[in-house]
Amino acid sequence: ISLVLITTLVFYLGRNYFMNKAVSYLNEQQPGEVQMGQMNLIPFLNFPDITLQLQAVNYYEKELDPEALYQEPILSLKEIGVTLDLIELIRGGIMVSEARLEDGFVLVKIYEDSVSNLEHALGIRFGAPIEKDGLEEKGPLAIDLEKIELLNVRAIMENQLEDEHVSVEVNRFESSFSYLSGQIEAGLEVDIDIDSVKYQIINDKLDKNISLNGSIVLIPETREMEVQPSSLSVSGFDFETWGNLSFGKIPRLDLAFSAANEGLELLNYLFRGILDLEEIEQIGAGSIHMNGTIQGGMGGDELPVVRVNGNAEDLGFRIKTLNREVSGISFQMFGTN
Q1: Four-CA torsion 74, 80, 85, 87, nearest 10 degrees
Q2: Is the pLDDT of residue 337 over 90?
Q3: pTM (2 decimals)?
């Protein structure tokens, strides 16, 4: 603890110096420019590691022109928190184990020459080999993320080459990863609102919420994976799955699932361009429920056996053009391959 207190004291005595050195180092590595309002050190939030809090962080495509009135940033965040290994920091290196990004936006543009603003800022071309001069030395920065979290971050993608656009609000995104005792554990929790999408045949202001919560356990030695109960929810559709997968010479699946759909909105967007369901409106509180299993191998001509049980209760529809209603639809079903 005394080591942490000494480190904290030294940091705050030279906080502005350390912040300016860090920003200068980052800006020397690529054409883009990083700007930062303030840097704080929180020693006991993730003890024995320490947390660095970066406030008012902006990242620009190129060095700012002091005479320009405004330049749109690629990234603008109220706060970024990174958790650092204290021992590695004292040795002169930086090991990042956790990252938290909060309140702001990320804007990625793909220009008509197919190069993005992020590629311009980083000075690289995604997918192209990186040229290296001489022997590669280990840099002072290493990232081994056990957890990354985003809160209240708007993500926007504009593709000028294909005239495409996607805008989503990330209410919460949390990803975790750990490797302990010969097994890998990974988890993902996502809650996003899709605002608008213009992609291929879809061009809509959607206003849809997607929620995903899942986790897996992978044992590399036996090449087996356990899918722990994982759920997806979107537009009145709820899906949950769990089970095991084996990645041997012939991959095998042993999964179970359940699903429920209380509306037609999901079908409207899945079949957009193939079926026109815009004239059909669901009425009443009917729902469709399904459950089943997927079991067997996947190799050569072999396919797993899929079994599905389902039932519908009190479904009702209104056909707008005919002004007619159909209600009280109920049925049971079973299917398999």
Answers
A1: 100
A2: no
A3: 0.71
